[in-house]
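chain below, 293 aa
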Amino acid sequence: MELDYISLRPVKPALTGYIRKAQSLIKTSTYPDEKMVHDVRVLMKKSRSILKLIAPQMTDGFAEREIQELRDVGREMSSWRESSVLQKNLKSLKKHHSALFNKLQENEKLVSLMYQPDNEDETNEVITNKLELILEKLNKTAFRIRFEQMDKIDPNLLLKELERSYNVVIDNYLKSRNKPVPGNLHKFRKRSKDFLYQLWFFKPLNTASIKDLEKRLDNMAQNLGKYNDLAQIIKAFGYNYKATSNQPELDELILIIRKEQERYISKIWPVAHKYFCPGSKLINVLGFKLLII
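prediction:
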């Protein structure tokens, strides 16, 4: 017998859980290593995606304010992640192209990017103070969420907001496919992750179908992330292919990076077209017949 009523996953426990986990990660870390920074930033993105989902049903600009607060937390930690990821990717490239890197060993910019210690410009005291400020922001957000009324959220309005997120991804996919530059692809990745994280609440509507969709979208987002990480290397070099003073070896390195980017980007287009082709309907993508939620 087919059920005529399905409950969505509750919003407030998930939101408080994300914030609580971020607080715990920061409290138990003595130094902002790559894993901790990555995990906290993901939790901030998940939290913001929830707040975007419920924003139309909240009063007094609550969701918008908390989105900004949590975005500030992510930005405070972004520089810590960027330097470590950049170094890791350069060292991976060196592993596969050691002869080329040997020819570039006198390139000051490359040496600086590869071997500059993480957070070199920040003393331990500065890092500690920053972590304390981040934790204070999270504590205040957790307190405000605790006393915010969320038990009367209309699930049908949540579904409408999910549809809005979905249409935003379609728009960003179209822009990226027509003009696949780093800025457009970065926005496409951010909006697709919003949609991905919001999907979690709707999984009871069709668990198998949505689970498969989540897996495919997560893989797409990871490939977009790898593309973006490589784009940051090119940006960090301040590379301009028209410059007459470029070392030939540097030009070759950039071409190798471009080839890697093409490899990652070629993996995302089939998935993106399948789910975000203009004219696609959310209900068809989710694969369920809407009953009562």
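The chain is about 75% helix and 0% strand. The two ends are 17 Å apart (CA to CA).
thats it, cya
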